[in-house]
Every structure is written in structure tokens, then in C-alpha cells.
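Long-time lurker, first post. I've been practising inverse folding by hand and with some scripts of my own, and I keep getting stuck on stretches where the C-alpha cells seem ambiguous. Below is the full C-alpha cell string for one chain I'm working on. Before anyone asks, I'm not after the true native sequence, just a reasonable design that respects the backbone. If someone could post their per-position residues I'd love to compare against what I wrote down in my notebook.
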């Protein structure tokens, strides 16, 4: 095939003209791309440092930082192709449809993820706290993105979805640092009430784990048809609560038996933070 030199020259001139006309868009688009990547890297590092300083969970910190990184990269890519003159409306529509489909298929997981973020940000509890939630009393072992890992007193591991956990009632027994045990002793009407009260007060006073402030309380709570109910309310540090509860029961039982004070087989315990 014979090629006309004039045609070749015309093609070259057209190519040069296209490059000249398109080069400003290409240069500006590349400039936006490289500057945007640098800014995204700086923002990502800054966000990570802020979350670390706020003592956020490392797993959540990495996950949120990665989400932010990719979201910014997608926005930068849309800006880049838009600057090149490529129509972005169809591209954005596809991304929106994909996001909707993924959101509908992962609705439960997204709810748990949102609940995990709320727990980490507002901190109703932290790792090491003893909480009561969803009918379970246990110590928080780990706060993950979708579930919270709890360890019960009998060494069972329980996983509670963060969505249900963040939307339900949470009782934190550790947040105040002190706990009160509400004990009720039912004593016979024939017993010496003043002597019984004095015995209980002496036991609480001699127990080093019972806090002096707030001071423990001992008083008549109720009169039933068969007994006089004494309310016993000692305070203890959260780590000593179990010992104070069991030691008070044991010591009072032994002291009442030695003093000849008859008690009814009824003891109730309620843990409170107030």
C-alpha cells in the first residue's frame, strides 16, 4: 500500500494538535493524582496518631484507618478521571449500586460493626471491666470489630454481638472502682437484736477489705412473720468484692452460732455501684 507523504504529515499534525490540546488536562490530572496521594498518606498517618492517643482498640484503629484510606483513594480516582474529561456519572452509579447491594447483604454485620465503633468511642466499658449484659455477668476480655469477647467466672468464653450489646442495657461493676454488697440476714425474734447488730458491726470493722469510707451500714430492714431482717451493706474495692461477700457470710454465721443466735435460712445478695 502506497502511503501519501502528505497524509502522514497530516496525521502527525493532528496527533501533535491533540497532544497540545489535551496536555493541560493530562498534566493537571497527574498533578491532582500525585498531590492527592501525598495528602491522603499524611491524613492517614495523622488519623492513626489521633486514634492511638485516644487509646482506641488497635484492631478498630487499623480497620477505621484502612476504610478512610480507601474511601479517599476512591474519591481521588473519581476526581482524576473527571479531570481527564471522562464521564463519571455512570462510574459513580455503579459504585452506588455495589455499595447498596453489599450493605443489604451485610446488614447484620454492619449493625455489629457500628455497635463496636460506638462501644470503642463512648467506652461504656473497657477490657478488664466486669459487666452484666444480655443476661451474662463476666469480665471483658477483648473488644473486637463485630463482637465483644467475655470471660465468665467459671472460665467460659462468651461472644456477644456488638449490635445487641450497644443497644441493650449494660451494668458496669468496675467503672466506679468500688462495689457494695447488699446482704440480708433473717434473725429469729427470740434472738438479742442489739447483740446481733453489734456482732455484725464488729465483723465488718475487723475485716481489712471492708472500706471505711463509704462506711458499712447495718440496720433492721424488715419485720416478717417469722424473722427480723437485718440489712448488711459493706463496701469494698472491686477486686476485693468477692472476698468481702464470702467472708462476711462465713464470719457472721460462725459468730451467730457461737453466740446462740438463731438465723433463718435466707440470705440475699445484690451488687450495686451506687
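-- Answer (accepted) --
I ran through it position by position. Result:
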Amino acid at each position: 500500500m502506497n502511503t501519501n507523504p502528505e497524509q502522514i504529515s497530516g496525521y502527525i499534525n493532528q496527533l501533535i494538535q491533540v497532544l497540545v490540546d489535551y496536555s493541560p488536562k493530562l498534566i493537571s490530572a497527574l498533578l491532582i493524582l500525585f498531590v492527592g496521594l501525598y495528602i491522603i498518606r499524611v491524613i492517614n498517618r495523622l488519623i492513626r496518631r489521633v486514634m492511638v492517643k485516644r487509646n482506641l482498640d488497635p484492631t478498630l484503629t487499623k480497620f477505621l484507618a484502612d476504610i478512610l484510606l480507601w474511601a479517599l483513594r476512591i474519591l481521588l480516582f473519581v476526581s482524576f478521571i473527571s479531570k481527564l474529561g471522562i464521564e463519571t456519572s455512570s462510574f459513580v452509579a455503579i459504585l452506588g449500586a455495589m455499595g447498596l447491594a453489599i450493605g443489604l447483604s451485610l446488614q447484620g454485620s454492619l449493625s455489629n460493626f457500628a455497635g463496636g465503633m460506638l462501644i470503642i468511642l463512648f467506652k461504656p466499658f473497657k477490657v478488664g471491666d466486669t459487666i452484666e449484659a444480655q443476661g451474662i455477668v463476666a469480665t471483658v476480655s477483648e473488644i473486637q470489630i463485630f463482637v465483644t469477647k467475655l470471660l465468665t467466672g467459671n472460665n467460659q468464653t462468651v461472644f456477644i454481638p456488638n449490635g445487641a450489646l450497644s443497644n441493650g442495657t449494660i451494668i458496669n461493676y468496675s467503672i466506679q472502682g468500688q462495689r457494695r454488697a447488699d446482704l440480708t440476714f433473717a434473725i429469729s425474734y427470740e434472738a438479742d437484736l442489739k447483740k446481733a447488730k453489734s456482732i455484725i458491726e464488729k465483723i465488718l470493722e475487723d475485716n481489712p477489705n471492708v472500706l471505711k469510707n463509704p462506711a458499712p451500714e447495718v440496720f433492721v430492714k424488715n419485720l416478717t412473720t417469722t424473722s427480723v431482717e437485718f440489712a448488711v451493706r459493706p463496701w469494698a474495692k472491686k477486686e476485693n468484692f468477692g472476698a468481702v461477700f464470702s467472708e462476711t457470710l462465713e464470719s457472721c454465721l460462725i459468730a451467730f452460732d457461737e453466740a446462740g443466735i438463731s438465723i433463718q435460712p435466707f440470705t440475699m445478695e445484690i451488687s450495686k455501684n451506687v
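A couple of notes from the structure itself: The two ends are 97 Å apart (CA to CA). Residues 156 and 212 are 35 Å apart (CA to CA). Happy to go over any region you disagree with.
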